[in-house]
């Protein structure tokens, strides 16, 4: 007969300190391996959503063209009775107006396109609510921007004045149209091109070889400040915030160089572009300037070799 004192079954007192340290080390290694994978998944999802946004814009652009036989422009004419919204005093922006024709539209392409991307209510909303319209279609999720945003009296990063006439908030866009095919109808001192609306017949280089809309580069500090420096709201026509024509692609970074109206994003490796035939393609950050310029000009006569992209 075995006595209790002779039993070899003894209760374990728990983990030793060394065992706990080993477990913690293993968990730390697993987390270190997992986080980059999670980040890659998030980046891929954001890039997919960005691509889908541009495809929806492409469908809207062609629906607009089917109805009006031209593509929307960058606006800029300041219609009678509109609030005097501007940055510097010579930059009196035109504002979106549903009663105006495409040729006379004071708002930019981002406003004119709203009825063709399932945003009819925003397009026709009464003022001043119309000026605060926003849509996630115009925001790339990789930037985590707030939309809409309140605009302060002075841009907190770049120091530019911002006259909102008391209207807030304002919708934002991470995308800009190709200035060569989306020109303003009034000169507002923003350095943008002024000209007539273009149609499919005007794109001599071919719709599949001409950029329509792409991602615009930004300084990350300006993502959520409400500032308008090269980032005017989606209701403000004639501005430089909604068009680009620079032959350069830069990754978003602090101190971003806005001169020359360059393109940019936070995506790894490049920027997403919508072409005028409706297809979307990512162009690498290293895309030669000459190639990018050729893809921007609608009738330059350049020959694009696929190996250059």
General description of the model:
The protein is of the alpha/beta class. The chain is 22% helix and 10% strand. It is built from four helices and nine strands. A five-stranded mixed beta sheet has the order 5-2-3-8-9. A two-stranded antiparallel ribbon has the order 1-4. The chain has a two-stranded parallel sheet with strand order 6-7. A hairpin with a 4-residue loop joins strand 8 (270-275) and strand 9. The longest helix has 52 residues, at 17-68. The chain is globular and about 80 Å long. The model is unreliable at 1-9 (pLDDT under 50).
Keywords:
309 residues, alpha/beta, five-stranded mixed beta sheet, two-stranded antiparallel ribbon, 4 helices, globular, disordered N terminus
Count of alpha/pi helices: 4
Structural class: alpha/beta
Strand order of the largest sheet: 5-2-3-8-9
**Beta content:** 5-15%
Q: Please give the largest β-sheet.
A: 5 strands, mixed
What gross morphology would you assign? globular
Mean pLDDT: 91
Element pattern in H and E = HEHHEEEEEEEEH
Helix coverage percent: 10-25%
């Amino acid at each position: 007969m075995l006595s209790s004192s002779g039993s070899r079954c003894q209760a374990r007192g728990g983990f030793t300190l060394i065992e706990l340290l080993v477990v913690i080390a293993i968990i730390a290694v697993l987390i270190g391996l997992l986080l980059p994978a999670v980040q890659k998944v998030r980046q891929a999802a954001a890039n997919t959503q960005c691509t889908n946004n541009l495809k929806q814009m492409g469908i809207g652009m062609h629906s607009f063209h089917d109805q009006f036989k031209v593509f929307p422009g960058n606006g800029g004419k300041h219609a009678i009775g509109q609030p005097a919204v501007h940055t510097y005093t010579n930059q009196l922006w035109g504002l979106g107006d549903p009663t105006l024709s495409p040729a006379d539209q004071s708002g930019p392409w981002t406003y004119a396109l709203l009825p063709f991307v399932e945003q009819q209510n925003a397009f026709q909303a009464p003022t001043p609510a119309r000026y605060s319209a926003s849509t996630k279609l115009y925001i790339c999720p990789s930037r985590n921007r707030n939309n809409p945003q309140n605009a302060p009296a002075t841009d907190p990063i770049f120091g530019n004045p911002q006259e909102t006439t008391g209207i807030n908030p304002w919708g934002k866009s991470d995308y800009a149209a190709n200035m060569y095919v989306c020109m303003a109808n009034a000169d507002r001192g923003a350095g943008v091109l002024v000209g007539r609306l273009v149609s499919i017949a005007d794109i001599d280089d071919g719709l599949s070889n001409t950029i329509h809309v792409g991602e615009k580069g930004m300084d990350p500090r300006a993502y959520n400040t409400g500032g308008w420096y090269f980032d005017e709201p989606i209701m403000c026509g004639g501005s430089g915030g909604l068009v680009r024509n620079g032959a350069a692609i830069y990754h978003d970074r602090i101190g971003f160089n806005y001169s020359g109206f360059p393109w940019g994003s936070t995506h790894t490796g490049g920027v997403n572009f919508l072409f005028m035939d409706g297809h979307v393609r990512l162009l690498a950050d290293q895309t030669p300037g000459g190639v990018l310029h050729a893809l921007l000009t609608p009738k330059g006569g350049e020959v694009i070799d696929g190996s250059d992209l």
